[in-house]
Design goal:
Low-confidence stretches: none
Radius of gyration: 23 Å
Strand order of the largest sheet: 2-1-10-9-11-12-13-14-15
Structural class: alpha/beta
Number of strands: 26
Largest sheet: 9 strands, mixed
CATH topology of one domain: Rossmann fold
Mean pLDDT: 92
Length: 541
């Protein structure tokens, strides 16, 4: 390990965890479902206790039925199954069924455009798709270009009651559950080395890459988080509200998998933009734990009805995805009595690398300490940075991915010669070992906690007739933290407008990636070798 200045701040926290505490995630799920069988596991976040909820025993039965269905239609161990869902009850049922069948889940944003969806399905080789019915037209537009053979549509009401899948339409998720109930299921042998998730991430290049995460990666990260937060993870007692999307690794690992493993009561919020509806969920759930990004917290503290919520049970408010602004934490603490604990991680690290542990009693403005069994070193041009000096955050631990799916060159480039994952982010340790993020990957843009990669935006904009070349940068935005700005050099005699560029992008990109500002310029600043200097565009304002 490196000098590990953070270990002195651990107190009674063990320095290491057992990444093989469970042989696989399937074993961990089954243990939780049997131990907490009669406790509430999942609720649809509609503030209606009892009407749309499932017990751990219900989840056990339904996930087993889905696993049996998958085997029946030919899904084998290691096959990829794409899941394109918002936070509906069907998501965790599908997830646990896929895990029990030994397949690999490919998490897909249900807001993706046809272009984005096609890339992910083709790259992963998924032949099965579980998709929200509202996103079916997106798939229909590109299905001929994919290898998908089995499509299961999900309605918002699916799994809303333990036996509501009987009168289901053919080709639906509900029908698959009903059919699976009458089919045999043979659990495959699984171990920590078996692949579990393809979590797509842009890295720092255009098209997204699938980070290959194994069962051991996720078991390890669950154990790391639980070991770090012992007083906040009480089996059978926790109530969590999940508003962050489960197709993102933060909510997937922390909100769903970790809290499921301890028998928590999890309220799923399908539409986090409806802050009024979320406040209704808060009032009904009275959570002990909540995870969010800065923009979500900012919206909640500004909502006129936030004072209606009883936060007396809330012990843990966690933040990630983007820096938590100190004033937002201050406002949150004034309302709830507790500050926001910030953490740091990436899709490639399952995701948690660092977090502010339970011993911290105030907002630190840092992402906390590296979690147990994790080594972090800060590198500058191949040399480890001196204490107090910034450097690229490089990490090694049992939660770090195996590599990028079918991209050996990208995988090699992502790791140092001695096996540390290169995050591309710049950080600095303080004297106590708390990690502060100095700068994200130099060109990445963070829009409401979502990663936006300039190369992808530039590729889309350049495809518009009349665009000679372009460059994409992030600009400060009060609402979303950052927004996308595109500088466009029009082709000679081209008639382009800001509205035309934005409309073109809306047809090709998820909404958070669409440029907020389009600026037309005669030329872009470039280096002597012809590389566009995005930094100069950012500095020019």
């Amino acid at each position: 390990m490196s000098k590990a200045p953070w270990l002195a701040s651990y107190g009674e926290i063990p320095a290491t965890i057992n990444p093989d505490r469970h042989p696989s995630l399937a074993h961990m799920f089954i243990e939780a479902m049997r131990e907490h069988a009669h406790r509430p596991a999942l609720r649809a976040g509609d503030a209606t206790p009892g009407d749309a909820s499932l017990s751990y025993a219900d989840v056990d039965r339904l996930s087993r039925d889905f696993a049996a269905y998958l085997q029946h239609v030919g899904v084998k161990k290691g096959d990829r199954v794409a899941v394109m869902l918002p936070n509906l009850l069907a998501f965790p049922i599908a997830l646990i069924g896929i895990v029990r069948a030994g397949a690999v889940q490919v998490n897909v944003n249900p807001l993706y455009t046809p272009r984005e969806l096609q890339h992910q399905l083709v790259d992963s080789g998924a032949q099965t798709l579980v998709v929200f019915e509202g996103a079916l037209p997106t798939f229909d537009a590109i299905k001929a270009h994919t290898a998908v053979k089995t499509v299961l549509s999900v309605a918002a009401s699916d799994c809303a009651s333990a036996g509501g899948e009987r009168d289901a339409q053919p080709g639906s998720f509900a029908a698959a559950l009903a059919q699976g109930a009458g089919l045999p299921f043979e659990a495959p042998a699984l171990c920590g080395d078996d692949p579990l998730f393809l979590q797509y991430t842009g890295g720092t290049t255009g098209l997204s890459k699938g980070a290959l995460l194994t069962h051991r990666n996720l078991v390890a990260n669950v154990e790391q988080f639980k070991t770090f937060m012992p007083g906040f993870m009480n089996p059978g007692e926790e109530v969590v509200v999940t508003a962050l999307p489960l197709y993102h690794i933060f909510a997937l690992t922390v909100n769903l998998i970790t809290y499921f493993s301890i028998g928590a009561d999890n309220w799923l919020v399908a539409n986090a933009r409806d802050l009024g509806g979320m406040i209704d969920v808060f009032k009904a759930a009275r959570p002990t734990s909540f995870m969010g990004v800065n923009t979500l917290y900012a919206g909640l503290v500004a909502h006129p009805r936030i004072g209606e919520v009883d936060f007396s049970r809330l012990r843990l408010a966690g933040g990630g995805g983007a820096a938590i602004i100190p004033t937002v934490s201050e406002r949150w603490q004034a309302i709830t009595g507790g500050f926001i604990r910030e953490g740091y991680g990436l899709s490639e690290t399952s995701p948690v690398l660092s977090f502010n542990p339970g011993s911290v009693d105030r907002f630190t403005g840092t992402t906390g300490l590296p979690v147990p069994s994790t080594d972090v070193k800060l590198m500058n041009d191949g040399v480890e940075a001196a204490p107090g000096e910034p450097g690229e955050i490089c990490a090694k631990g049992p939660q770090v991915m195996q590599g990028y799916w079918n991209q050996p060159e990208a995988t090699r480039a992502a790791f140092t010669d001695d096996g540390y994952f290169r995050t591309g982010d710049v950080g600095v340790f303080d004297a106590r070992g708390f990690l502060r993020i100095v700068d994200r990957s130099k060109d990445m843009i963070l829009v409401s906690g979502f990663n936006v990669y300039p190369n992808e935006i530039e590729a889309v904009v350049t495809a518009l007739p009349g665009v000679a070349e372009c460059a994409c940068v992030g600009v400060a935005d009060e609402r979303s933290g950052e927004a996308v700005r595109v500088f466009v050099v029009p082709a000679r005699e081209a008639a382009l407008s800001e509205e035309a560029v934005i409309a073109h992008c809306r047809a090709q990109l998820a909404a958070y990636k669409v440029p907020r500002v389009v600026s037309f310029v005669e030329a872009l600043p470039k280096s002597t070798v012809g590389k566009i200097l995005r930094r100069e565009l950012r500095d020019a304002g």
